[in-house]
Each structure stands twice: as C-alpha cells, then as structure tokens.
C-alpha cells in the first residue's frame, strides 16, 4: 500500500529528531507494533509482486487477474469503515487485528485447493472483508500509542518496509528455482507469523478525549479540504493500480528474471525506508501540502517512465526510486492529515474512511481500469493513464488541500 499542526508535524521537533537519530531504542509497545508491521509486510512482500504471476501460471487472462486482484479493493470500500466504527465504539482494536490475521491464514489455506478464477475471486473477497480493517486500525493505534512522540511513527513503520524488502528478494530468488505454486506456502506461513504478532499488540488505543470542537463525523466530512484529500487519495491509488496488478508481468514479458523483478521492487522500498527515517527533517523543512503535492507530481513522472522505458533498466530503476515520494511521502502526509482532521473518538474511523475511499474505491476502479486498458491498449498507455491519475490528484491538492 501522506498536517502541519497534526500528530507528526505538530510534535516537538527536538523530540522527533532525538527519537529518529541513528537507530533509537523502541519502547515495549513500539516493539510490539514494529513486530506486527514486520510480519504483516513480510506477508505482503511475498504476495504483492508475485501473486499476479501465480495467477497467470494457472492460465488466467489479464481480465481475470484484474478481477481477482480487485476483490481486496472491493472489500476496502466498506470493510475498513465498518471495522473502524466497531473499534472506536467497542475499544477492541487488538481483537479486530487478530481476527483479520486469522482470516488471512484461513483464506490462503483454502486457496491451496482452488484454481478457477471465480472461486479464487470469491475466496479473496471473503478473506478481504474480514482483513481489510486491520492496517488503518494499527496505524491509528500506533499514532495514539506514540502520543506526543508521534514523530517516532516513521521508525516503527519502517520495520514493515525492511521486511517487505527481505520477503520480495528471497521470494524472487526462490521462485526462480521452484514452481510458482510454492508461493502459496510462503504466503500462508508469513500470514501465520502476522497472526502471532497480532496477538501481542497493545491491547487498545488510549481513548481520545472528545473536545467541544471535535464535532460530528459528518461535519468533518463536509470540509472542502477533507473531500479534496479523499479525492486525491482515490487518484493516487488508481495511479498505482496498474503497478500492483501488472508491473511484474510487464517486466517478465520484457525479459527480466524473477530475481531482477524482486530487486526492482526492493529499490522502491529502500527509498521508502529513507523517507521514514528522514521524516522529521522533511516535516520541518516542507509543509504537508508541499510534500503531498510533490508526491503526486512524482507519480505523474514515474508511471510514464514505467510504461514506455521498460527496456532501459536504469530508467526503470530510477522510476522505482520515486516510490519514496509516491508511497513513502504520500502515505506519511496523508495519514497525518487524516489524523488531524478526524479528532477525538473519530480517529480510527477517519483512517478507515480514508482507506475505504482511496484503497477501496480507488483500488477497484484502478484495477478494473488497468485490466481493461492492458488488454485493449497495452502497457504503455495503461501506465500513461496511471500518470494522468497522479496529475489529477496533484490538481486536487493544489486546489483545496491546506496544511
């Protein structure tokens, strides 16, 4: 899978710099959060770059692959908002994350016995409905747990990026030597590890005090800046959908080995880690609006290069380094802005709503659009559409988002 006076930028700068210097010691609750990020993104790192290749090995066409990959996005339209509401009302954050991880273990276990596109899509939809609420809740839990030291979020979250790199590289090397079907074994084992880590997360986020100015959720949603931010998030996920669905296939068809594909995915995540490590400095130097705008402009450039320069490995590598902006900067600024706008008892719901609109609606629209355009127009124009989506998001940020 981006507030000036918000939970990150509003924190005391000296605290942030001290917390991010070298490799700071993490407190017990932070270690548990970091462990969950580590195990969850190891699972994601094994799955995301190679699942489309696995589906292709079963004989699925581009439209069928897009349908299967759209199922998690369909679940994200409504599931995160529902689970966020349950978490805020019942204060059962950890229990929901445990349930989410258990759904992954069961769901990918079922996929060992399923090979037809409709059945795979049904399983993916079912497991995604239960699991889609976890990451917004964990992000909300992390920011609430860190409190005044929320500048440490980057150091906690980067462990997910580290594990993603390890999983991508090792899985790529493995799949160069083993059948693609073995991917499911790797994914299932890593989902089991994420379940174990979920069981030891901090039990609940401290209940936020609802101030008089916190307002009703609907009032928050009617703010033009919030609507523009949600719309821009929708555009960013549309822009990335072709990447997540067809990037590995795009490279494989151009002659790249699985190991080389893994290295290219890894480059992006290394750049993402650099963003998380330097986050406090970035926030001191630039406004969240400027960071957000820059991330969308970078997306406009990145996807054009991916679409038309696949034979130029240095340009493809440079485009992957732009992941630092199009995901790392974007994610940090967006989560911070949502946390700022949705205050008091609405924090988990705010993050969940953001996930629903961007990763849900945007993911469905983007994945299905990518599936159609891949078959009808080819890779170059598919990634050009991604570029245009990124530039549309930039226009929304420039028009209404203030930080």
At a glance:
With 403 residues, this protein is an all-alpha fold.
Task: Give an overview in words.
- The chain has about 400 residues and is mainly alpha-helical.
- It has a single domain (about 30-205, about 220-400), classed as Growth Hormone, Chain: A, CATH 1.20.1250.20.
- About 75% of the residues lie in helices and about 0% in strands.
- It has 18 helices and no strands.
- It has helices at about 15-20, 30-45, 50-55, 60-90, 95-110, 115-130, 135-145, 155-175, 185-200, 215-220, 225-255, 260-275, 280-285, 290-310, 315-320, 325-340, 345-375, 380-400.
- Helix 4 runs parallel beside helix 6, helix 5 (about 95-110) packs antiparallel against helix 6 (about 115-130) and helix 14 (about 290-310) packs antiparallel against helix 18.
- The chain is globular, with a radius of gyration of 20 Å.
- The protein starts with 12 loop residues before the first helix and ends with a helix.
């Amino acid at each position: 899978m981006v507030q000036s006076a918000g939970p990150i930028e509003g924190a005391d700068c000296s605290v942030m710099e001290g917390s991010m210097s070298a490799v700071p010691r993490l407190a017990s609750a932070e270690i548990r959060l970091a462990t969950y990020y580590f195990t969850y993104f190891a699972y994601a790192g094994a799955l995301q770059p190679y699942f489309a290749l696995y589906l292709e090995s079963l004989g699925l066409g581009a439209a069928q692959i897009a349908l299967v990959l759209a199922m998690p996005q369909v679940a994200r339209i409504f599931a995160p908002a529902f689970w966020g509401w349950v978490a805020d009302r019942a204060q059962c954050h950890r229990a929901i994350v445990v349930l989410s991880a258990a759904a992954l273990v069961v769901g990918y276990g079922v996929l060992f016995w399923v090979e037809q596109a409709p059945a795979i899509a049904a399983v993916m939809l079912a497991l995604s409905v239960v699991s889609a609420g976890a990451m917004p809740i964990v992000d909300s839990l992390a920011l609430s747990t860190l409190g005044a030291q929320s500048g440490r979020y980057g150091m906690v979250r980067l462990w997910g990026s580290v594990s993603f790199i390890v999983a991508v590289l090792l899985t790529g090397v493995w799949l160069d030597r083993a059948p693609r079907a073995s991917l499911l074994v790797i994914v299932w084992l890593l989902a089991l590890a994420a379940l174990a880590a979920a069981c030891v997360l901090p039990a609940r986020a401290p209940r936020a005090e609802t101030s008089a100015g916190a307002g009703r959720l609907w009032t928050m949603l009617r703010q033009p800046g919030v609507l523009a931010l949600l719309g821009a998030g929708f555009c960013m996920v549309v822009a990335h959908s072709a990447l997540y669905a067809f990037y590995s296939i795009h490279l494989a068809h151009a002659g790249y080995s699985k190991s080389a594909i893994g290295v290219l995915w890894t480059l992006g995540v290394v750049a993402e880690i650099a963003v998380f490590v330097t986050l406090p400095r970035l926030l001191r130097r630039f406004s969240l609006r400027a960071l957000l705008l820059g991330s969308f402009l970078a997306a406009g450039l990145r996807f054009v290069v991916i679409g038309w320069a696949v034979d130029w490995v240095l340009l493809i590598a440079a485009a992957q380094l732009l992941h630092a902006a199009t995901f790392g900067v974007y994610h940090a600024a967006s989560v911070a802005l949502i946390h700022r706008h949705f205050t008091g008892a609405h924090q988990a719901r705010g993050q969940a709503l953001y996930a629903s609109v961007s990763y849900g609606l945007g993911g469905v629209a983007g994945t299905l659009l990518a599936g159609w355009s891949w078959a009808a127009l080819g890779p170059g124009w598919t990634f050009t559409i991604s570029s245009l989506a990124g530039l549309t998001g930039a226009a929304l940020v420039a028009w209404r988002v203030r930080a």
